[in-house]
Amino acid sequence: MTATTLPKERGGANPPPRTPHADRARRMRRRGRIIAVLFVLPALLLLGALVVYPVLFSVGRSFFDASGTRFVGGGNYTEMFRDPTTLRAVRNTAIWVVVAPALLTGLGLILAVLVEKIRWATAFKLLLFMPMAVSFLAAGIIFRLAYDQDPDKGVLNAAAVSVHDAFEGSSSYPAARAREGQGLVGQPDGSYLTDGAGLTPGDTVTLGLVGVAPGELPGDARPAAPAAARKAGPGELSGVVYLDFTPGGGGKQGRVDAGESGLPGMRVEAVRDGRTVAATTTGSDGYFRFTGLEQGTYGVRLPAGNFAPPYQGISWLGPTLVTPAIIGAYLWIWTGFAMVLIGAGLATLPRDALEAARMDGASEWQIFRRITVPLLAPVLTVVFVTLVINVMKVFDLVYIIAPGPVQQDATVLATQMWLVSFGGGNDQGLGSALGVLLLLLVVPAMVFNVRRFRRSQR
Description:
This protein is of the alpha+beta class. It contains 15 helices and nine strands.
């Protein structure tokens, strides 16, 4: 009897039969994927149109000349590092990257720790966070006015002038000058000295000045005529410093007329053989007097300090300070952001570790340095890198705050890219190369931040 062998099914065991329930689940999963793609598709299209396409177009455009018709290869990238203005933009961007994020992270950390110890912490956080609600355009206009050189407009220079004048004083007669041929001769240092053979004790001299508007005289100024009539005593040298101008007209040059006012607060020096031997200040009627002088000839000098221009404050927007000044405006805007993020990380710290350190006798500074800062290191890193990305793209504040003459001294990569492409340079090939350089600088920081976020989620 011959045995019959049944053929084996290919692939081994028979697959389980499909059930209606499994088919339905498979259809539901496929349908869910399609719905998810439909929901994501508008965002992907928008991302492609606003991010991917401009990036690819800029990369391609950077290899062509200003007209966009001639291929120049890496010529724009070579030119970029030959241009002094572009190199200055790279230097300023490096200053921004090194200074601004570090200061902001440090300020945010200090304020976040201190705010925890006050009663009105929420109100204080709100106050510091409010500048974030101000646009960069509005903030730029605010600080452009605050940094204005004119103390009547710029609040910072108004404060600087007030402090300076409180300690140093200022001249009340910056525009005053002597008439030619009326007894006073201008000196190279800006002072005025009496001419002629010299004065001796017992003489009286009248020193007339012009250039001071009657309305600008000090409030305590009195008529000079009575003072001019006084006679000097033995061993004395006296006189009067007055405004040689009669309101309403009339009077005679070089003579103290009835309607002419003395110049109070004017410093006067008695000079002999080129040395100052006595000094005094005029009274409200312009009168001055030197006593105890030895016999001999003297000159009377009005020092240059009487005519010095008033202190105008600090040139915040000059070539030297314009970049630090703009960084200061940036700190005002973003300090609240850093404080709130670090404060959120501070709220998650294990309080038992802090309390255990206090019970072991650690000081608040030791707790801050050895416990708080190490535990906040991940948050501080994220804040720092986020701010680095942000400062690399700063444009509004630099463009608005920096005046035209110093725009090149304050320029950064973002402003230089715009100026080269659209702000008069009209070289979009070089501008695209600058944009690609900026992208290459920003991408590593962005990748680092994304990895930090993913690590923290795990």
